[in-house]
């Protein structure tokens, strides 16, 4: 009894779709936010330990690499928030249609990028 069964799609033939990429990115941004919260904890600790420690913290965070990490943290925050709102609509039973799912996914990307860029414009204009 040698039946030919279909093979399940694997990564070499599977074409990623917007919904799968957004799902993976939602998980990745959740992990990034968890790890990035350590930066916020260090900030609070540096504030409580006085001027010298806070100045040291600012010197570490105010270089190009520190700003890149903060930019990524900001994007992760807004992406996770936007996609979380999208999931709340799904939990309420809205947006399951494929066209609506792609539209809401595009909106998540748009709002995440827009809010990140607006936040950093406000930071640099202060």
Give the SSE layout.
Layout: H1 18-49, H2 51-61, H3 64-91, H4 98-125
Helix pairs in contact: 1-2, 1-3, 3-4
**How many β-strand runs?**
0
CATH class: Mainly Alpha
State the CATH topology. Answer: 3 helical TM bundles of succinate and fumarate reductases
Shape: elongated
Termini separation: 74 Å
Task: Give the helices and strands as they follow along the chain.
Answer: HHHH
Determine the fraction of residues in helical runs and give it as a percent range: over 70%
Describe this structure in words.
- The chain is an all-alpha fold.
- The chain has one domain: 3 helical TM bundles of succinate and fumarate reductases (Up-down Bundle).
- The protein has 4 helices and no strands.
- Helix 1 crosses helix 3.
- The longest helix is centred in the first third of the chain and has 32 residues.
- The mean pLDDT is 92.
Fill in the keyword field for this structure.
mainly alpha, 0% strand, 126 residues, 3 helical TM bundles of succinate and fumarate reductases
Please sum up the structure shown:
Helix content is 79%, strand content 0%. With 126 residues, the chain is mostly helical.
């Amino acid at each position: 009894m040698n039946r030919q069964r279909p093979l399940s799609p694997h990564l070499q033939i599977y074409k990623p779709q917007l919904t799968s990429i957004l799902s993976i990115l939602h998980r990745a941004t959740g992990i990034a936010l968890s790890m990035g919260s350590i930066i916020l904890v260090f900030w609070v600790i540096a504030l409580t330990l006085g001027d010298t420690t806070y100045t040291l913290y600012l010197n570490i965070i105010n270089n190009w690499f520190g700003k890149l990490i903060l930019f990524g943290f900001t994007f992760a925050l807004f992406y996770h928030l936007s996609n979380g709102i999208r999931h709340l609509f799904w939990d309420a039973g809205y947006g399951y249609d494929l066209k609506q799912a792609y539209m809401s996914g595009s909106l998540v990307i748009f709002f995440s990028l827009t809010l990140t860029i607006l936040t950093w414009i406000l930071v640099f204009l202060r």
